[in-house]
Each structure stands twice: as structure tokens, then as C-alpha cells.
Specification:
heterodimer, A: 110 residues, alpha+beta, three-stranded antiparallel beta sheet, 3 strands, B: 886 residues
Chain lengths: 110, 886
């Protein structure tokens, strides 16, 4: 799996991916990175160095909230959940992304 | 935070372990994959908090640490700033209050002072006057009008303006609830307060109904008087108060904001004109002062109606004014005509008096502020030079220019805040000092408070200087992206430091030049004061006590007055410790006095003389001998032949001792009136009579005992304070209800007359010392900085056989060179300033050589001290040590 060819994230999409991932339920940082990797069929690799600053930024903006919880195995972990503002934000970001992706696709396929 | 990353690493490592790596290898790989943990943590921290606040805390903590590492420089910068801000705020606040600020009344721009201008005293129109007249250009401007003129003007311009009258304050004896005190009473027309739109604190103010003979006598008191003499009695309105032994009802108390017609207005009691105390006590012309159009004793103020200009009002008032004259004067072109002046700032009581002194002080504190700013610049540059390596290090480690600027900005701001806070304290101290000086020994309140707007203005000037010079090094350092300064050892002089060092030298030279002026001014004024204080008044000023007594305003009529004075004299003479007692109608050394023009009948030449009516024992209090002729004796006090004693210099001006036995007349302003004539029976030595500053021509007449008030002067055989209780007892024995007014020693009386000089000397010395201290700090800073830069060179010199004294002289030469250059540059300024002072303060000789030598000596000594310390330190360097550091 370390050998797979990975795509760098397009600037600005990290927040969207995090929000979408967190929308499924409380999850910690490592879990977010893993889930993005898995659901993208290992195509999208989140830079660990960007993940945590992004999480903290989203927390400060009030779209994520975090709490420390016991994990099944191992140490305490910080679990992130979406706030009400986060859900609105996710919806808007998704619409925007789809419009954007659709537009790019139309240009490329013309 | 840390846990979150640890948790992530834990999972990553677990993953690698699952793939078959050993535990250590898995941890290593996880760490490698994650990247720089610290960087991530830092970026998270930046995201989590408001960046600038964390940065700010860091900056402040670091700045504080840096400041504590260089406590001398920090303290010097803070003190410089505080002194500059404090002294300037205090002086400018006072200037604002006295010179510029409007009266605290609604629409002050509507207020107009009514004056007239003419040529000299209007002898054809007026017999008596009370007010002031001063030359203004080709004209004389005067402020006095007759009451009929006031009434006429008030009536005829009532559509254009509301005109009110008032008098100069009279000193009166007041008694409230059995406690006697002394206060100043101003008589005002009934519409005075309504014209000015003053409001009462409580009770009511005066109205036209109060201003008639028939109305009961009422008085309004100032808020200050209410607190000081009525013990802030909340029920004061309606209670009675005795003013010069006449009963008045207190109508109300004025609002606290109303300090009078100008800052420094001493009036505390306001009575209607028809119940003015001067109408009661005195005889003759005063009694019908309000009906007599030849007694000009009222001052006028007007509030113009909205939209009425002074030029519109002036002709209307002029016509009304002329209508009250008996007949037009012979020279109509020179006759008085109305001249209106802006009244928004009130009367010029302190303004005229203090304008020049305040402007001079303002100039001096501005110089002080400049010196302080230069000092701050110098200190910051020196420190920045010392920190060059640190700054270069930070830049080469990746610190951004903005971050570096911000750090230095924060440090400067910290200094500014500390300096500002200390400045408030200093401003307060200087303001208190100033308030005392301006108030003098009289209870004049100028209601002087620090002005926060001024403080803000001056602080921003200083803060701007601070920031400019605080940021300059950061800008300079961040432009050099190479690590130039890093390559040099501690002892080298890099290109940057050489430049900074040079600008420091010029700063110090400039400072020295400015200090010359301040130190010189301090020396001049201090010497001036010392000169006046030690000048010989012509008599022994020790063991003399003065006090005033006012039987005439406490119910004594004419026949009883003489009796009272005789008994007082006898009783005081018999008091143990009192060796001599004299009575005089005018208080000596009180700066003003009673002046008359005198002449030998038939001669044209007139002489101005200070007059006093005295008892036979009065002159011997001061001088034991007469130049010629005789002293007064008891018989002179009652004899029909009127006699006089003149001072030696008056006799000389009149033609020598030959005038003894001749007649002398007092030239009175009234035409046709019989001039009082006197036989000159004695010539006394010239002594200081009105002020220690001069010994004017003097004329003494016998004290006839019908004056309503007198000053008693006693010579004691013991220290005055020891005899005072017995004197009080003696006065109380004669009349227990009569207060002793202004009981002080002659030394205090003389000193009270020198308030102005003392204020100047004290403030200028203060500023001079500050300037000197700041310059010494500046010079010391630059010299010690440059010696620290030259440690290597000095070490080398010492190693090659230079003697310590060679090193000392090397450094002293450098320091004194700067000082001498600065002093030389300062002397032309001094010459200009000296000319200005000479113009303003005519009795001083600012550029006398001794003062010059004294001032330059002080400056050179200070420079020697400032350069000497680093020089001595450098000469004791261990050459081996310094060379090893190279």
C-alpha cells in the first residue's frame, strides 16, 4: 500500500474531505486520515502535517467540536464531531465543489 | 495537543508493526512519515489561537526580558520620556488654562469686555476712578465707567446686548456663624449673573430687584468660599453673613465650575452694586458713587445677542456713553470712545501677568522634550547596535522582517507605556508645584488641572520618536540578509556599528548644544533670585512682624478710630518681647502701594513717590538716623500744620538738603482742587518700601488715625514666633472681635513678593538639571558604547605598553570633544535666547560673564563625569582577556 501512486490534494479540498469524513460520526485524527485513504481507494493521501493544523482551524471556526475520549484500545484520543454550523458549511462546500467539478468536467469533455 | 499527535504516531507505528517491522523500526518509520512533530504542533498552535495575541505575549515577555537585561538604558529611556511628557503636559495645561481656554459659560464667544480708549485720564469728565488704564499703541485703553453711563448703555443697547457692571474685588472682613475671615467682595449689577448665564449650585443668584437701595441686602458666594468659610453648609442659603459688619442674607452659592471672570479671579462674595461694601464704610465721593457721573468706578461686560457683531454694538454703546457726559470735552478727537474686546476668555488677570513667563517656560520645556526625544533615539540606537548580532542571528534563523519589526515595535511600545505612566506622575508633581507658585500666598484658585488632551498630544510626539528610533534598527538589520555582523567578533567595529556610532555622536553634540541654553537659563534665573533675595533693603529685615487691622470695617467710627489706634499702640508697646511698634496706612513690601506725583510749589518738575502715613515710631523701626531734619513726633499727628519726611534720593532729585523746610505739594488729578501741601521737616535714608527690588523715592506723612485700616509693624527683641502669642493676646485685649489680617514676618512678606522670581528660578533650575541629567546619560551612553566597541583596540594598546592614563586621556578627549563642540554650537542659540530674555525681563542681564562661566563650568564638569567613568573602566581592562576575545 505504501507503493501505490498517490495524488496530492487540490488546494482547498482538505477542509471538505475532513468535514465529509467527520459527518459520519465522531472520529479521531488518525481515523480521518485512514478513512480518506481507504474511501478514495488509496488515491488521496492526507499530509499529516496539514491535517492537524486544518482540524484546529476548523475547530476554531466553530464547524467542528472536539472532545477527549477513551478509544477501544490504546491511549485517549481526541474525537471530532460536526457542529450545526459544520453541517451547513459541509452542505455549502459540497454544492460548491460539485458545481466546480461539473464545470471542470464540462470544459475537459468539450 | 501533544497527545493527539502521539495517538496518531501510535496508530501509524502499529500499522508498520502489523506489516512486520520491529517495534523500534516501526516507531522510526512512523516518525519519518509524520514529519516534523514540532512544526506541526506550532502550526496547530497558530491555528488554534489568535495568532497575534500569542505573538504579542511572546513579544512582551521577550521585550521585558531584553529591557531587564539592560536596566540602565531602559531606566534612562523611561525617565527621559517621563520627564519630557510630564513637564510638557503640566506647563502646556497651565498655559491652556491661563492663556487660551474660554470661560466655562454658555456661548463664551458672545461675551464682550467693554473698554474705552482715549488719551490719558479724562480729567474734564471724571473726578475719581477705580479701574485700570494701560497704553495700547497710540491710545490708552481703560476699563472704568460711571454708573449712570452703565445704566444708559444698558438701556439703549438692550436689543443688541445685555450689559452688566461689576467692580474690582475689595478685601472685606466677613463673619459667618461667629467665625471671622477675610475675603474678596465684588459688587455686581443685578443682571450680572443672568447676562453671563451662570447657574447656582443651590439657592438663587442676584436679580435686578436685589440691586436697589430699598431691597434687603443679599450676597452670593462662590463654591470655593462656601466650602472654605461656610463649611459646605447645605442650608447656607437664607442664613445671614456679616460683611464689614453689615448684615447680608446669603441668596445662593455659585456652581463649582464658575471660577470667576478669569482664572485667578480672587472674588468670592458677590453683592449687588447698591449694597456694595464700599458704599457703606467710606465717606465723601464714594457714598453717592452710583449717582455721580463723575465717579468712574464700574467695569462692564456684555453678552451680545445672537448675530450681533462687536462692530455693530460699538457705535450704539458709544452714543449712549457720550450722552452721559456733562459737557463734551474741549478736544473731542482725544475724548474717550468705546472699544470692545473679546470677552470669551474673561479678564486678563493672570493672562496679562503670566503670558511672557509662561511662553518662556513653554519654550524651555519644549527644548527639554527635544532633548528627551534625542536621548531616547540615542539610547535605542546604542542598544540596537549592541543587539546587532542578535538581530542578525534571528534573521539568519529564518525570522521574517515583519516579525522582527513587530518585536522591536512591541519593545518600543512597552517603553512608551512605562514612560507615559511615569510621565503622568511627573506631570502631577510639576502641576502641583506650578499651582502653588501661581497661587502665591493669596488664596487665588486657578482651578488648574492636568489636561488629558494635552497629555495625549505630547505623549504621541514622544511615542512617535520612540517608535521611529525603535524600528529603525530592525529595518536596517532586516535589509541586510547576509549575516555580516555575525562574522565579526565582539570587539570589532562593523560597517553598521560605525554608522550608528556616528549618528550617536551627533545626537550627543546636539543635546549638549540644547543643554547649554537650559543650564544657562537656570543659572541666570537662580542668580537673579539670589541677587534679589540678598539685596539690601536698607534695614534689618530680621525680627519684624506685620499684621493688618481693619477697625473701620468693624463698626468703629471716626472719633473712635484714633482712640483705638492709640490704645492698640500702647498695649503692643507694653507687650514683653516687643521693642518697638509702628503703624502705617499702607502695608510695606506689598508690591503695590500708594503712589503720588509731588512737586515743590511753583516748580514744573514732578516726581513720583511712594507715599505712606506713619506714626512717629515707624521710621525708627527701619533706620535709626535721619539724614537731616527730624522725625515726626506725637504733636505732628494732631497739629494743624501738615509736615512730611522725604527720602534721601527724593531730596537729592529735588535739589539736595536745601529742600528741608520748603513746602511740597501732592499733585492731584482734579483740576481746580486745592492741592494738599506739606512742610518738609526731615530727610530719611532711602529704604525699600514696596518691594525689595527697588528703593523708590518715598514720602512719609503723619498717621492721623482716621484711616479705616492700618498695618502694624513690630520689632521684636526675640524670635518673632516666640512673641506672636503675646501679640495676639494684646490685640485681643483691645478688641477681641477684630481679626489680625495676614500676620507674617517681614522676611516672609519680602519672600511673598518674589513668587514670580522663585517660580522661574525653581522651574528653570529643575529643567536645567533635567537637561543636564539627560545629556550626561546620552554622553555616557555613547562613550561607554564606543569604548566597549574598542575593547580590542584598547587591549592591544595596553598590551603594547600604553599607560592607563594614556587610555583615559584617549577616551576623555573623545567625550570632551563632543561636549565642547556641542557647547560651542549652543552659544549662538544662547545669544539669541539671551536677547529675548533681556527684552522680556528688562531688569536682568542674562549674559553676564560670571553666569556664563558658571553654566559652562557645570556643563564641562558633567561631561567630564559622563566620559570619565567609561574611561576609567577602559583603563583597567585586562589586555590578555580582551585580546583573547578577539
Amino acid at each position: 500500500m505504501r507503493m501505490a501512486k498517490k495524488t496530492d490534494l487540490i488546494q482547498g479540498t482538505l477542509d471538505l474531505l475532513i468535514l465529509k469524513t467527520v459527518a459520519h460520526g465522531p472520529i479521531h485524527g488518525y481515523g480521518i486520515a485512514q478513512r480518506i485513504l481507504v474511501t478514495s481507494k488509496e488515491l488521496l493521501q492526507v499530509q499529516q502535517g496539514s491535517l492537524y493544523p486544518a482540524l484546529h482551524r476548523l475547530e476554531r471556526k466553530g464547524v467542528l467540536k472536539a472532545e477527549w475520549r477513551e478509544t477501544g484500545a490504546g491511549p485517549m484520543a481526541k474525537f471530532y464531531t460536526l457542529t450545526a454550523a459544520g453541517r451547513t458549511c459541509l452542505r455549502q462546500e459540497m454544492e460548491q465543489w460539485q458545481r466546480y467539478a461539473g464545470a471542470v468536467a464540462m470544459v475537459l469533455e468539450s | 495537543m501533544h497527545n493527539e499527535v502521539a495517538h496518531h504516531l501510535h496508530h501509524l507505528a502499529a500499522e508498520y508493526e502489523r506489516q512486520g517491522y520491529s517495534r523500534e523500526e516501526a516507531l522510526r518509520l512512523a516518525n519519518r512519515e509524520f514529519g516534523g512533530i514540532t512544526q506541526v504542533q506550532e502550526r496547530c498552535r497558530d491555528e488554534r489561537r489568535w495568532v497575534w495575541t500569542t505573538g504579542l505575549r511572546q513579544d512582551i515577555v521577550f521585550g521585558w526580558r531584553m529591557m531587564r537585561r539592560t536596566p540602565v538604558i531602559t531606566a534612562a529611556a523611561v525617565i527621559s520620556l517621563a520627564l519630557g511628557i510630564g513637564a510638557n503636559t503640566a506647563i502646556v495645561s497651565l498655559m491652556d488654562r491661563v492663556l487660551w481656554r474660554d470661560l466655562p459659560l454658555p456661548n463664551p464667544r458672545q461675551l464682550t469686555l467693554v473698554h474705552w480708549k482715549g488719551h490719558g485720564y479724562p480729567q474734564e469728565l471724571a473726578d475719581g476712578a477705580s479701574g485700570s488704564m494701560s497704553p495700547a499703541g497710540a491710545w490708552d485703553v481703560a476699563d472704568f465707567f460711571s454708573y449712570p453711563a452703565f445704566a444708559q448703555m444698558r438701556k439703549s443697547v438692550s436689543a443688541l446686548a445685555s450689559v452688566a457692571a461689576f467692580t474690582y474685588p475689595d478685601q472685606v472682613s466677613v463673619s459667618f456663624a461667629g467665625r471671622p475671615t477675610v475675603a474678596r467682595e465684588r459688587a455686581v449689577s443685578g443682571n450680572f449673573f443672568s447676562s453671563l448665564e451662570v447657574r447656582p449650585q443651590f439657592g438663587r443668584l442676584l436679580s435686578d430687584h436685589d440691586d436697589t437701595y430699598a431691597a434687603p441686602a443679599v450676597a452670593v458666594v462662590s463654591h470655593r468660599f462656601w466650602t472654605r468659610a461656610l463649611s459646605s453648609d447645605p442650608n447656607a442659603a437664607g442664613r445671614s453673613i456679616a460683611i464689614n459688619n453689615e448684615t447680608y442674607l446669603i441668596a445662593g452659592v455659585l456652581e463649582p465650575a464658575f471660577y470667576g471672570l478669569a482664572p485667578g479671579d480672587a472674588a468670592e462674595i458677590y453683592t449687588p452694586l447698591h449694597h456694595a461694601s464700599f458704599l457703606h464704610a467710606r465717606s465723601g465721593e464714594m457714598q453717592n458713587a452710583l449717582e455721580n457721573n463723575r465717579y468712574w468706578g464700574m467695569q462692564l461686560v456684555a453678552r451680545r445677542a445672537t448675530g450681533i457683531t462687536e462692530s455693530r454694538l460699538e457705535p450704539a454703546m458709544d452714543a449712549a456713553f457720550r450722552a452721559t457726559w456733562e459737557k463734551p470735552p474741549t478736544n473731542l478727537a482725544a475724548a474717550p470712545r468705546i472699544s470692545l474686546d473679546a470677552g470669551r476668555r474673561g479678564l486678563g488677570i493672570l493672562r496679562d501677568d503670566l503670558r511672557e513667563p509662561l511662553l518662556v517656560l513653554g519654550g524651555l520645556v519644549t527644548l527639554l522634550l527635544v532633548i528627551a526625544c534625542v536621548n531616547i533615539a540615542n539610547l535605542l540606537l546604542a542598544r540596537a547596535n549592541a543587539r546587532q548580532k542578535e538581530l542578525a542571528m534571528r534573521i539568519s534563523l529564518g525570522c521574517g522582517r515583519a516579525r522582527l519589526m513587530r518585536q522591536l515595535f512591541t519593545e518600543s511600545a512597552l517603553l512608551a507605556i512605562l514612560g507615559g505612566i511615569a510621565g503622568i506622575g511627573i506631570a502631577w508633581v510639576v502641576a502641583t508645584l506650578l499651582g502653588q507658585f501661581v497661587a502665591g500666598h493669596e488664596t487665588i484658585a486657578i482651578g488648574f488641572a492636568l489636561d488629558w488632551r494635552m497629555m495625549a498630544m505630547i505623549s504621541s510626539v514622544a511615542a512617535a520618536a520612540l517608535l521611529a528610533f525603535g524600528l529603525f534598527p530592525a529595518w536596517q538589520a532586516s535589509r541586510r540578509l547576509d549575516a555580516g555582523p555575525l562574522k565579526h567578533g565582539a570587539g570589532s567595529i562593523g560597517a553598521l556599528s560605525r554608522r550608528g556610532w556616528n549618528s550617536g555622536r551627533w545626537f550627543v553634540t546636539f543635546q549638549m548644544a540644547l543643554s547649554v541654553i537650559l543650564v544657562m537659563t537656570a543659572v541666570i534665573f537662580t542668580r537673579n533670585l539670589a541677587g534679589i533675595q540678598s539685596s539690601d533693603p536698607g534695614f534689618d529685615r530680621r525680627n519684624l512682624i506685620l499684621f493688618g487691622t481693619r477697625p473701620g470695617t468693624s463698626g468703629y467710627d471716626k472719633p473712635r478710630l484714633a482712640q483705638f489706634y492709640f490704645r492698640l499702640d500702647q498695649r503692643l508697646r507694653a507687650t514683653p518681647g516687643v521693642s518697638a511698634v509702628g503703624l502705617a496706612s499702607v502695608r510695606p513690601m506689598d508690591m503695590g502701594g500708594w503712589w503720588e506725583a509731588v512737586q515743590i510749589p511753583g516748580q514744573a518738575k514732578r516726581y513720583d513717590a511712594s507715599v505712606n502715613a506713619v506714626t512717629p515710631a515707624y521710621l525708627p523701626l527701619y533706620t535709626s538716623r535721619m539724614i537731616a531734619g527730624r522725625n515726626f513726633d506725637r504733636a505732628d499727628l494732631t497739629a494743624p500744620a501738615r509736615v512730611a519726611i522725604i527720602s534721601e534720593d527724593l531730596a537729592r532729585r529735588m535739589g539736595g538738603n536745601g529742600v528741608l523746610g520748603q513746602r511740597l505739594e501732592i499733585v492731584d488729578g482734579r483740576p481746580g482742587a486745592k492741592r494738599p501741601e506739606y512742610d518738609i521737616v526731615g530727610i530719611a535714608p532711602a529704604i525699600a518700601v514696596t518691594s525689595i527690588k527697588e528703593r523708590p523715592s518715598a514720602l512719609w506723612l503723619p498717621f492721623t488715625g482716621d484711616a479705616p485700616e492700618a498695618t502694624v509693624v513690630l520689632r521684636t527683641s526675640q524670635p518673632p514666633q516666640a512673641v506672636l502669642p503675646a501679640i495676639r493676646q494684646a490685640v485681643s485685649d483691645v478688641d477681641r472681635n477684630l481679626p489680625m489680617v495676614d500676620t507674617i514676618t517681614m522676611e516672609e512678606q519680602i519672600s511673598n513678593g518674589l513668587q514670580r522670581e522663585r517660580m522661574f528660578a525653581t522651574l528653570c533650575s529643575g529643567f536645567g538639571i533635567l537637561a543636564l541629567a539627560l545629556s550626561v546619560v546620552g554622553l555616557y551612553g555613547v562613550i561607554s558604547y564606543s569604548t566597549s566597541r574598542r575593547r580590542g583596540e584598547i587591549g592591544l594598546r595596553l598590551a603594547l605598553g600604553a599607560q592607563p592614563r594614556n587610555v583615559v586621556s584617549l577616551i576623555l578627549r573623545e567625550g570632551l570633544g563632543m561636549a565642547v563642540l556641542g557647547i560651542l554650537l549652543g552659544v549662538p542659540f544662547l545669544w539669541l535666547g539671551g536677547k529675548y530674555l533681556q527684552k522680556e525681563l528688562t531688569n536682568m542681564k542674562p549674559l553676564d560673564p560670571l553666569s556664563l562661566i558658571l553654566a559652562l563650568g557645570i556643563l564641562l564638569l558633567a561631561a567630564l563625569f559622563a566620559a570619565g567613568l567609561p574611561a576609567l573602566r577602559a583603563s583597567t581592562l585586562d589586555p590578555a582577556e580582551t585580546l583573547r576575545q578577539e
